Amino acid sequence: MIVVAQPALARITPAEYRDIGVAVPQNAALPLDAIVIDEGGHRRPLRALVTRPTVLVFADYTCRTLCGPILAFVSSALEQSGLVAGRQFELLAIGLDPRDGADAAEKMRGSHVDPALKATTRFVTADDATIKTLTAALGYRYAYDAGDDQYLHPAAAYVLRADGAVSRVLTGIGLSGADMRLALVEAGEGKIGTLRDQIRLLCSGFDPAHGTYNVMVSRMLTVTGLVTMFALGGGIGTLMLMGRRRSA
Predict the structure, then answer these.
(1) What is the model's pTM?
(2) What are 160-174's pLDDT values in tens digits?
(3) Span 85-97, pLDDT tens digits
(4) CB 113 within 8 A of CB 121
(5) What stretches of 142-203 adopt beta strand conformation (E)?
């Protein structure tokens, strides 16, 4: 998992630096009862914001290095996925710095989210205790450099199911629209996407080390063999039925 390198790394101890990363606990899920602050300053439970497959990014809204580009990469991949924002998926950003308010969140959203996604994207803030609860629940480990007033954190995009459960974790840099689509279709549990998407999922394996989907030849051959078998079976059945009708 790529780590967002902030200035003055010497101010972070080697032990803290080694601990930064993503280690998703088994059956991890976003605590949907947690209260966050939306763009209008209203307190809302995450349950009201996560109602369908959701891509979640933790970000420092005043970050001067890679947080903005990471959100731009995620936004671009979502735009290229071909899925419909607000109907088939949601994009949610949660601020890491409890001091950041709605102005900082809106500034980052306005600068780094594709215009087509802005209306259906939520950038929320929370207090320190809530942020720590959310990051701990998803195995997201970061560190704060007090000397430089910056956060050191991994570049990751969580793909959540509608119930908040973690489906996949994608790398925040180098995301493709194809990988994003497959991850959201998988998180949708058959409720979004096409038959072609489901076949692609059957033929693909997820590589957690790189956060991407790869075609697995063995799976592809198995699926192709099954399709061929059913096609032949259907053809033979049709011929037999036609023969019986002619005999009758």
Answers:
(1) 0.80
(2) 999 999 999 998 777
(3) 999 999 999 999 9
(4) yes
(5) 143-145, 150-154, 156-160, 166-171
